[in-house]
Structure formats: structure tokens, C-alpha cells
Specification:
single chain; 493 residues; Aspartate Aminotransferase, domain 1; four-stranded antiparallel sheet; 15 strands; globular; binds pyridoxal-5'-phosphate; aromatic-amino-acid transaminase activity; Aminotransferase_I/II_large; aminotransferase; cytoplasm
């Protein structure tokens, strides 16, 4: 479809919070459009003089695509200089530091935005015309902004039954009702979601219908599972029917790995590197953006897992009309994403080019595949399969262990059939033995009505582990301690 045939996004201002409706663009900020205009003597806004920013240039040294030897071991590097003044730029796509470190440009620096737009076009085919990108200080802030834009105190958001705890904490602190959506190994179960929405007033009497559906589709935190592409159209149609905004939080999107297969059936090395860029792009799960004929999907992206979390740089993809509202909020909150982060990340990405960045992402897949394989191989080696199951995770940084509490000899006696008590006890035993995993219950979304379990009340307790930055030897040690502890506690030795 050529872009002139594409539709426009719908207007969703009826879903805005009171705060978002009250917020008006600041007149002084509108003057920024003239700041760079050579025809205008700009006396309008209080900008510190960039010629006395105490920085003339910055040098960056980064691995060079195609990252021969692997991301961590690549010795071929490229060096670039980021200059303060436009006239001194050694690379024409750099953001001059005088601009990057100045007020203004709160949507993001154009050199970075242009790269990100092209990158988005490469990976997602958005069916409407007027989509855009705005930079943020990472997905945590993007989510917080989303809550403020769409929700008033007392409103409701849907989240996966197990989810990133800080997303729940942010919503609860704003006085919102967090309602869990049932999920399985393939993510949100659409039939159950439909059932919940159809019977809402019976299940949650007095609680408003949800405005936002928050999902971590790929390599979900904490479960590690990935929402099946087949389920997405059904979920999108529910968002349309019940007029919800879908917020897809995708920090783990590029940590999609080769499928796990047991050690003895595995080829000597992962073949991800050998895949063409087109095959790599096709192998990734699809974004809700691709189904979004209305403009009701807000995608949160971040460099925290593809570069480094301390960059505090992310971006939101959505309809221009929605992003204008984020922009208005940003102008009076974060103002803009840090200029250092933008100029450095933009400098790296533009030097690598789209192909080089895809090489980087393919390299990430390879690194994570090796880490995941090592971890799961040793889970299977050390953990007692009579009581523990380990789903074969295919994206993200986390693996889950499901432990059958009912098989604990004292589950009904000492622990009175309460899996939360046993979970805590096992957690403490593990820490005392020298290995720490997070308790699954820490990530569980509690129903707003008097703590009643509405979703999945069984005897499985879960623990979350990560393989992302655990050295191989430490992983072996940790999992063998865990195996011994579980065998001892479940009287399997
Ligand atoms: C689902 C999810 N969203 C957001 C974040 C934080 O992202 P950022 O560093 O971009 O704020 C995390 C964890 O780090 C996460 O698991």
C-alpha cells in the first residue's frame, strides 16, 4: 500500500485524563520553532549560551559492524568525534552538541528520530499514515506518562496476571485499579479476556471498565513467555470493541532467541548470525502496531536492553495526535531526553547504519541464545523434574520455575495448603543456601476486589530467574544449589 492510500488515525481524546485535557501547549515553548531560523533574531527564550558549554567535542569508540567474533569479543572498532558546533562536524548526521545540550527539541533530535523512524519502518508495517515517534527517558517514564495521559484516579488498567512489578506500583500509586488478565505460556488468553470484559460488572462491580490494556508481549517480565501472534488480532478486536488503548511495552523485543532444543539435539552453534537481515526481521514476533487501523496502540521502546539501561533513552511510537499529548506533558516534566544520550546513541546508530544496527541485534540474539541454552541445560541437569517444570523460554532475560507446592510433604500440615507461605519459606531456604531467585507472587497482579483470587487459583508456585548477566560458572553453581535445596525440602533425597 503506498502511503497516500493509508488511512489516518482516529482521535482518542475522549479517553484522555482530566489532567491531559487541562494541559495546554505552553506559548513560550512554541517560540522554539524559530530558534534555529536564520531570518529571526531570537530574543524569545532563556537559553544559556552554547559557546560556553564546557565541552568542545566528545570522542566515542564503538565496535564496528558486522561485529566479527561476537558482540562482546569484537576487536574491530570505529572512533568518532561528536563536535559542539555544526561547522566542525566530522560526520554530517551527527547532532551538534550545542543543539543536543540546549533546551528545546523535546520530541527528540531529528537525526535520531529519522533513524528510529526508518528502523520502525523496517520492522513494523503500520497501517495508518500519521504515526510518529517521540523520545523518552526509557519505558518506565513512558508508562508513567501514559498513565497520566489516559487515567484519572479510580480508573482501571488491565495487565497480564504476572507482570513487571514497577508497572503495577506506578499505576497503584496513581490510585488506579489494576486488573489481571489470565495468561498461559502463549501470553494473554483472548477468550478469557473476552469473558472478563463481557461479564465485567458481575466480576468487578463498581469498578470502571478498563481504559488501558498494558502488555509486555515479547519475553514477558517475569514469565519469559511471548504473546502468540495468532492471539493478537483477537485481543486487538477486544480493544476496539471495549474502546481501550493498548500499551505494548517491548524492552525485550530484540532479545528473541532461536527456539530452545535439548543439548543433544542442538547444532554446534546457533545459526542466527548466518540469517539474512530479511529472514531475521521475519523471524521476530509481530507488533500490535501492524494491526492498528485505529491508531489506538502505543508502543514503548527502549535502548535499555539493546545498548545499556543507564542511557535512559527510549521512544514511543503511536499516532501523532496521541504523541502531541505526550509532548505537552514532557514539556513540563522531563523537558526532553538527555542530550548526551541522544547525541551518543544517534552518533552510534547513524555510523552503523540500519544494516549495522540489524547486525548488532542479530548478535544480541546469538549472545542471549547461548546464555539461555546454558541456563536451561543446567536447569534440566540439576532441578528435580518430579516437582519443577521449566518452560522453554524463547525471548527476554528471564526464566520461570514452576514448583508444585502440593508435592511438598508438609504442604497441607505446616503450610496449611497455603502456597504463598511455602513460596516464602523456599525462597528463604534458597537464600540461606546461597542462591537467590525472585518469588513469582511479587509479580502477581492482585484483583481490586478484596484480594479475592479471580485468576488461576492452583497449587503452582513460581520463581523467576535471569540468565542475562550471570557468568556461566555462577549459573552452574546457583542451579546446583537450587536443585539440592529443592530435593532436600521436597524430601527427594
Ligand atoms: C516490562 C519492562 N518495562 C520497562 C522496564 C524498564 O525499562 P527502561 O529501562 O526503559 O525504563 C523493564 C525492566 O527493566 C521491564 O521489564
Amino acid at each position: 500500500m503506498t502511503s497516500d492510500k493509508l488511512i489516518h488515525a482516529r482521535n482518542f481524546s475522549h479517553l484522555f485524563s482530566d489532567e491531559a485535557r487541562r494541559r495546554k501547549p505552553s506559548p513560550i515553548k512554541t517560540t522554539m520553532a524559530y530558534f534555529q531560523d536564520p531570518e529571526v533574531v531570537f530574543l524569545g527564550a532563556g537559553m544559556p549560551p552554547s559557546e560556553i558549554f564546557p565541552l568542545k567535542a566528545m570522542s566515542i569508540e564503538v565496535p564496528r559492524p558486522p561485529f566479527v567474533g561476537g558482540l562482546a569479543r569484537c576487536e574491530d572498532t570505529m572512533v568518532g568525534t561528536l563536535s559542539r558546533e555544526q561547522k566542525d562536524l566530522t560526520f554530517d548526521k551527527d547532532v551538534p552538541l550545542a543543539r543536543a545540550l540546549q533546551y528545546g527539541n523535546s520530541r527528540g533530535q531529528s537525526e535520531l528520530l529519522n533513524f528510529l523512524k526508518e528502523h520502525t519502518r523496517l520492522f513494523h508495517h503500520i497501517p495508518y499514515k500519521d504515526w510518529d515517534i517521540i523520545t523518552t527517558t526509557g519505558s518506565t517514564q513512558s508508562w508513567d506518562a501514559s498513565l497520566r495521559i489516559f487515567c484519572n484516579k479510580g480508573d482501571t488498567v488491565l495487565l497480564e496476571e504476572y507482570t513487571y512489578s514497577s508497572s503495577v506500583e506506578a499505576a497503584e500509586a496513581q490510585g488506579l485499579n489494576c486488573v489481571p488478565m489470565a495468561m498461559d505460556d502463549e501470553g494473554i488468553i483472548p477468550e478469557k479476556l473476552e469473558n472478563l470484559l463481557e461479564n465485567w460488572t458481575g466480576v468487578y462491580p463498581g469498578t470502571p471498565m478498563p481504559k488501558l490494556l498494558y502488555t509486555i508481549p515479547t519475553g514477558q517480565n517475569p514469565t519469559g513467555c511471548t504473546l502468540s501472534d495468532n492471539r493478537k488480532p483477537y485481543i486487538y478486536s477486544l480493544a476496539q470493541k471495549y474502546d481501550m488503548i493498548i500499551i505494548e511495552d517491548e524492552p525485550y523485543y530484540f532479545l528473541q532467541m532461536d527456539p530452545y532444543c535439548p543439548q543433544d539435539q542442538r547444532e554446534a552453534a546457533t545459526n542466527a548470525e548466518a540469517k539474512s537481515n530479511e529472514a531475521f526481521i521475519r523471524s521476530l514476533s509481530r507488533s500490535f502496531l501492524e494491526l492498528d487501523i485505529d491508531g489506538r496502540v502505543v508502543r514503548l521502546d527502549s535502548v535499555s536492553k539493546t545498548f545499556a539501561p543507564g542511557c535512559r533513552l527510549g521512544w514511543i511510537v503511536g499516532s501523532r495526535h496521541l504523541l502531541d499529548t505526550y509532548w505537552n506533558l514532557h514539556e513540563v516534566s522531563i523537558q526532553s531526553t538527555c542530550g548526551f544520550a541522544q547525541s551518543i546513541i544517534s552518533g552510534i546508530l547513524n555510523r552503523w547504519g540500519q544494516c549495522g544496527y540489524v547486525d548488532w541485534l542479530k548478535g544480541l540474539r546469538q549472545e542471549y541464545t547461548l546464555k539461555r541454552n546454558w541456563c536451561l541445560d543446567h536447569c534440566h541437569k540439576y532441578l528435580p523434574s518430579k516437582v519443577v517444570t521449566v518452560p522453554p523460554v524463547s525471548a527476554g532475560m528471564f526464566f520461570m520455575l514452576h514448583v508444585d507446592a502440593s508435592k511438598h510433604p508438609e504442604f497441607q500440615t505446616t503450610f496449611q495448603g497455603n502456597k504463598a507461605l511455602l513460596e516464602r519459606y523456599i525462597y528463604e531456604k534458597c537464600v540461606a543456601a546461597g542462591v537467590l531467585l525472585a518469588c513469582g507472587s511479587w509479580f502477581k497482579v492482585k484483583s481490586p476486589t478484596s484480594g479475592v483470587e479471580k485468576v488461576n487459583d492452583n497449587t503452582t508456585m513460581s520463581f523467576r530467574g535471569t540468565y542475562a548477566s550471570v557468568p556461566p560458572d555462577a549459573m552452574v553453581k546457583g542451579l546446583s544449589i537450587l536443585g539440592e535445596t529443592l530435593k532436600k525440602e521436597f524430601k527427594l533425597i
